């Protein structure tokens, strides 16, 4: 209830329409298990507009069936579902060695809920109400995870290089000195290069706090980082996606 | 009938009845006791005087014989208020004396009569009336018996006196009961009636009513005072609740109205790019609303203690340093300097996320309000521990919070800045306080530079109890 007001209520969300973002991850196919039909309709429509094919199941049992019959890149599962609750769907899937990344949606939205959700085998957790841009960004990051450059020791975006071992950052061969936290910020952005990373995601992965930063704290850190990696260079790399977050990308 | 029953239900009447009963018992006991005692003393005196006479009689008889004895007794019997004298023959017939008849058998035994016996005195007018007497009987060697006795009055007279005394006592007690009834019933119970009248009004919804308090400071006044204090608290809570709902109405209605207007504007726009900007504004507005709702929800959940299970050791030193590091560039952007005095290795049992959010809120506030002081634009984050307290404080040199408003600013949606010119939900300190309550701590607000300073500043301190192992 009420989610439709927040979760991409607009048929075409200007937040990502503006960035011309269509299908950052090509041909991604996801499953949405959500019993609120209205919210699910908005969600699948909004995903489709972002170039993501979204199937929908309205209860736990049919969701479990669809998840084991088809190959999805990501699943979005509501915690409270009729016939079989979300967490049990996830643990059942994991038991059947279905390791599709799962994002848990929850109206409970509290710290301990997050912990139990992730323990049950979820990969990410988003409390309601959420902005659709947040959901989209997280789904895309999860979809990328399969081929994620987790083992890569060197991230590259255009002429920007980040060495994860030596903690060195170079652009066009010129070394850029970063504070440890700035390094981690850049590392996370580059790991998800070409994808939108929200402020909440940054606070989660760089500072390890799981709540919505109420003010512009993250923006200030990002703009500091930006000035360091872009100051002496012509080409901007770090883009601000209005209403959503940030993306590092080589525009070619 | 019902009126009588009602009256008996009143405490005054019951108390009076109880007092009367108690007094009556006391009085009866007193009367009986006093009469018994005086009787004993009197009896002792009578015995003493009679014993002396017996000695006299013996002496006279020894010297003057029966004739001398007769003369002496005649003389003594004529004296006013004389004792009773009897000389009887060996068979018990009365020979001489000032007594008309004696209960048979009394004269047969020598010595003291064990109980009062009946006799009839001579009477000048009318038939003789029986009296009680006590006596000592002496058997002379010639067979004559001499009895010396003392009149104890008519039978029933003693009882009459006792009854009289009791009546007087009961009359006094009745008067006393009336006085008590007036004292308690008319006065004290009227006060209780006044109290119930006031309570009725309060129950009808007028929370500003107070119970009457007298000047005496007695139990009733103390009761009224504590009830009044309770009412004060209830009224405050009630007002707080009203304030919260008013503020919710205001703080949610304003952005909703703005949202609606912006949406209407966007709808009316012809140019695509202008509409895009307008819609972005709408999203920003909605995000702010969602934040407000989230914050409200969070506070309620924290206050309900539903996340108390998630407690674990939290490195406060690390969180403080992290938060300071996170906010340092923000402060710099606002023209402020963030300094720290963080003692190492301070740990409390708690929820890292919540404590983190609380510190973020404090830093947000400090940065928001401290930039008004150009002289000392610093914000200081301090963390220290003593024997039983861990104190984490954020101090700024901004306009501060007047002492009388310090209790107010932690309430939901209360913002000193009436115009709402600074961004914010008005929920920041409410959440901090709720988080501290969950951790068994307290929130302290004080001025950084003293209340009288031109820039008093605000120091917000989160006080955590130290867990004893």
UniProtKB/TrEMBL annotation, chain B:
Occurrences of domain HAMP (ranges): 186-239
SMART domains attached to this UniProt entry: HAMP (SM00304), HATPase_c (SM00387), HisKA (SM00388)
CDD domains per UniProt: HAMP (cd06225), HATPase (cd00075), HisKA (cd00082)
Localisation: Membrane
Keywords on record: Coiled coil, Kinase, Membrane, Phosphoprotein, Transferase, Transmembrane, Transmembrane helix, Two-component regulatory system
Catalytic activity: ATP + protein L-histidine = ADP + protein N-phospho-L-histidine
Keyword Iron-sulfur found: no
EC number(s) from the headed UniProt entry: 2.7.13.3
UniProt cross-references to PANTHER family, sorted A to Z: HISTIDINE KINASE (PTHR45436:SF8), SENSOR HISTIDINE KINASE YKOH (PTHR45436)
Protein name: histidine kinase
Organism of origin: Rhizobium oryzicola
